[in-house]
Amino acid sequence: MGYEAALSEYQKFEFTDGPWTRPVYRRGSGPAVIIIHEIPGLHPLVVAFADRVAAQGMTVFLPSLFGEPGRPVTTGYALGSMFNAICIRREFNVWQAGKSSPVVEWLRALARKAHAECGGKGVGAVGMCFTGGFALAMMTEPSVVAPVLSQPSMPMAAGSKTRAAGIDASPREIACAKQRFADEGLSMIGLRFKSDALVPDARFETYKREFGDKFEAIELEDEDARPSERPPHSVLTIHLKDDGPSKAAEQRVIAFFKERTGA
Fold first, then answer.
1. Cα separation of 41 and 46, whole Å?
2. What is the CA radius of gyration of the chain?
3. What is the dihedral sign for C-alpha 202, 182, 111, 31?
4. Which run of H or E residues covers position 112?
5. Cβ contacts of residue 159 below 8 Å, gap of 6+?
6. What single-letter DSSP state applies at residue 14?
7. 144 - beta bridge partners?
8. Computed from CA positions of residues 164, 101, 181, 124, in that sequence, does the dihedral angle turn out positive or negative?
9. pLDDT tens per residue, range 30-89
10. How far is the C-alpha of 152 from the C-alpha of 160, rounded, in Å?
């Protein structure tokens, strides 16, 4: 079974929409939450977060978009996965602000399927790091009602002030989200460590300016992070502490999912 042993409590299925087929892992009961993994892939700490969401009365769907499902994080694995996603794969928008990734359309279709099967008020969605902005772009799918952006790192800033302030959603997707927030009483959550160079201050300022009080910003200090060989970045996984502000942030996200989906 190899690395997939970390997902032994999950049901695996292949989901196809448009040109893409990806494996998806499912666990739990109740309304659906789609958890979109970070670099380097669907690693055990993403699975552990999903376990905690499922334990609160929701069905979690874990799509595997890149990397090896269940494989633990190492520096070499992360670098290789990042190179593959940035330089080879065409379903991801890495450099351009004001544009979502093509694979978001596949995720919207997955949300429709999950809502049809699981019911509730709608579907929660969280992206992390490389996929951090996906949940906002997914708001053009009416079933998505609880978007969470954890350390949204695209587009890569890489010395560009435009990209540092940019977000990976199109003007149409942003306008749709604003309209739905106003009409349906919805909102979104964004999380980051304040020192994280991959999620610049200017990017969170853009979210705050565009969405006002509909954007709930949770910004953490370095001392709130679990010690790691990597600088504070992964709020809900690698740098999540067992207590303190980062744990409170995770609990807020899970409560948000429960409230919005009707779990």
1. 9
2. 17
3. positive
4. helix 104-118
5. none
6. E
7. 123
8. negative
9. 999 999 999 899 999 999 999 999 999 999 999 999 989 999 988 878 777 776 766 545
10. 16
